[in-house]
């Protein structure tokens, strides 16, 4: 009997070895890229969670990272609903004055305080605004639940070792995630049961689409909203914090920014009017500052795609069907394209042609999967800079260490002291 058992095991080993061999050696004309193999808790896993030491490309991202991306109808739906609520039309028609008011209110508050930890302060500001005005009506000031604190803990433990054991960082992260999903699901069910609670926001559109989109249900929608909120929480706060760090270290850039934005104010017929969409679109040098910060920050460590056919990359053949990660830091920090790539130099954008930019500047992805929140992110950063340089002086008083792990990390924080110019 034991011989039969051994035979079954042997056949199973041969079968799965054959499958792995076929996967590693597909029938193609060419040479496959080298792949490192390791156990589930060693090898590249340890490379991935090991901290980076600078703004340079994280060691793991320099080699490879494979994940599965949203495909087909789910992706198309997610993009369409995000564009409706975060896209240029919504920003122009209703959100711009609200964004300026949010920024003005927070900067005025920070100016009455001591040094402010920018990453945390901006993350809370953006999260509370997005959750209230766009996604599901969450009012941070009048809520018992401080949801931004949950997101802070989740972001801080994002790269923790995945041990789901009580007491571990990962376990606490999963508990915060579970709590967030419950709050979102409860809000969803409340609106389903009481239409008077509806606000015409992101959540309401998802409710309207429940019957015509088969993949939507009361469990999927909270997950979708959780992802949208996390994306805005982390990417915008990291990029804007890095921009403020760079500006605090480059007074000549602040001088040029200030000149551009004071010119905007002087051209207004009504001096105290709100920022107009046309004014935002006219911010030439500001856009260079935003682009340069995005180039260095790389909010996403990579862009994931699936090969639709065999293609060649520097002598290697990528087979059809493989999941491929394009490491954006490897592109945007390439010294062959950007001289001194880790140097903050907004003026470099004056000399870059459109073809070079389109092929080497991809902070929001590209093509049909270009990030639906790209304009939202750039508008918040640009508006923040507008209010900042026209109304405040600022000085970095603590921090400055930045690394990539593989997302941006600020060590002990970037602490900024704000002072109103009219004081």
Automatic annotation (TrEMBL):
Indicate yes or no for the key word Transmembrane helix: yes
Task: Assign the protein's first listed, main location to one coarse class.
Answer: membrane
Q: Where in the cell is it found?
A: Membrane
Provide the transmembrane region boundaries. none
InterPro entries, alphabetized: Cyt_P450 (IPR001128), Cyt_P450_CS (IPR017972), Cyt_P450_E_grp-IV (IPR002403), Cyt_P450_sf (IPR036396)
**In which domain of life is the source organism classified?**
Eukaryota
Q: Does the keyword Iron apply?
A: yes
Q: Which UniProt keywords apply?
A: Heme, Iron, Membrane, Metal-binding, Monooxygenase, Oxidoreductase, Transmembrane, Transmembrane helix
Q: How does it sit in the membrane?
A: Single-pass membrane protein
Task: Identify its protein family.
Answer: Belongs to the cytochrome P450 family.
List, alphabetically, the PANTHER family matched: CYTOCHROME P450 (PTHR24286:SF369), CYTOCHROME P450 26 (PTHR24286)
Protein name in the entry: Cytochrome P450
Q: Which organism is it from?
A: Salix suchowensis
Q: What is the lineage of its organism?
A: Eukaryota, Viridiplantae, Streptophyta, Embryophyta, Tracheophyta
């Amino acid at each position: 009997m034991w011989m039969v058992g051994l035979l079954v095991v042997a056949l199973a080993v041969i079968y799965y070895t054959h499958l792995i061999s076929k996967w590693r050696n597909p029938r193609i004309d060419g040479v496959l890229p080298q792949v490192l193999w390791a156990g589930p808790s060693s090898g590249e896993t340890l490379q991935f969670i090991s901290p980076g030491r600078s703004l340079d490309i994280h060691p793991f991202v320099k080699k490879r990272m494979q994940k599965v991306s949203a495909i087909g109808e789910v992706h198309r739906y997610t993009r369409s609903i995000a564009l409706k609520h975060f896209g240029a039309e919504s920003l122009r028609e209703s959100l711009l004055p609200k964004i300026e008011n949010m920024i003005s209110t927070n900067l005025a508050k920070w100016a009455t305080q001591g040094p402010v930890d920018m990453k945390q302060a901006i993350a809370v500001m953006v999260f509370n605004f997005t959750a209230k005005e766009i996604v599901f009506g969450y009012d941070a000031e009048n809520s018992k639940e401080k949801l931004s604190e949950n997101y802070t803990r989740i972001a801080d433990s994002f790269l923790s070792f995945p041990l789901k054991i009580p007491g571990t960082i990962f376990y606490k992260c999963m508990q915060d995630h579970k709590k967030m999903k419950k709050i979102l699901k409860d809000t969803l069910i409340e609106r389903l049961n009481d239409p008077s609670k509806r606000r015409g926001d992101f959540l309401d559109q998802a409710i309207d689409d429940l019957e015509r989109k088969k993949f939507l249900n009361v469990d999927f929608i909270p997950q979708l909203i959780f992802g949208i909120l996390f994306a805005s929480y982390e990417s915008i706060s990291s990029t804007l914090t890095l921009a403020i760090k760079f500006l605090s270290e480059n007074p000549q850039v602040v001088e040029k920014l200030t000149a551009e934005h004071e010119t905007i104010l002087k051209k207004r017929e009504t001096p105290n009017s709100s920022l107009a969409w046309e004014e935002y679109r006219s911010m030439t040098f500001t856009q260079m500052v935003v682009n340069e910060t995005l180039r260095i920050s790389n909010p996403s460590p990579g862009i994931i795609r699936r090969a639709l056919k065999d293609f060649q990359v520097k002598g290697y053949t990528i087979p059809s069907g493989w999941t491929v990660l394009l490491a954006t830091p490897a592109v945007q920090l390439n010294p062959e394209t950007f001289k001194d790539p880790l140097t903050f130099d907004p003026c470099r954008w004056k000399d870059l042609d459109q073809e070079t930019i389109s092929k080497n500047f991809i902070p929001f992805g590209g093509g049909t999967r270009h990030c639906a929140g790209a304009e939202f992110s750039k508008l918040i950063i640009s508006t923040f800079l507008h209010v900042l340089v026209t109304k405040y002086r600022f000085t970095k008083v603590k921090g400055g260490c930045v690394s990539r792990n593989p997302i941006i990390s600020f060590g002990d924080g970037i602490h900024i002291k704000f002072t109103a110019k009219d004081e």
